[in-house]
Input
Amino acid sequence: MTDDPETPGNGHWEINLAATGAHTSGQWDIAAPDVDINYGWGEHVQLKLDVPWLFVHETDQPWKSGLGAPDLGVKWRFVDIEDSGFSMSTYPQYARNWLSSSATRGISAPGGQFLLPIEVATVAGDYALDAEVGRNLVQFGADQWVAGAIVAHSCGKNLECLGEVHEVLAPHNSQTLLNVGVHFKLNESRIVLASAGREFGTHTDDQRRFVFYLGIQLLK
Output
């Protein structure tokens, strides 16, 4: 959920292949695969295309599947102080359905969304700290403020443990996601990513009782 200012580096690729999902009071939403492709354009810019294939299951209804809303983004790291480990970036992203049938069938939300966040990162001893805050503009819904923070620390050979708090604020609806995860480095070009959590806040039918992510990151 919460992003950081890091970019792949000039001419390098970062590809995340994942299964992600969320369970609400009466529905499962699963993206499998969720293909997140990132390219480093120079040392401080990242280009992103995220394309999910969605599966939706409502109580007492058959599963539906289809193309989700692709997400296009450009990250620019405009502060990079190597001596202190402090960096800042902005990461505007726009998501919109390519297929109107996905919205008509209830697989993904209609219209588009534009997210404009700021990310910061630093280190405190052996801990890596990331934070993000931004505004999400929703075409056919309530606009949202989003904010999040991640704390990461080595917890074994080639293993990093993470804890995340991510807040979404909209009129009459506030949700806080508590998330824990791990990054396991298989080698220099492959990293396993996994996390699980749930939301706390305003009790609504859309509140996510369980959220998960399982994927592999390919670097080249």
Q: What stands out?
A: Helices lie at 100-104. The chain has a mean pLDDT of 95. Residues 137 and 143 are 5 Å apart (CA to CA). The chain has one domain: 13-219.
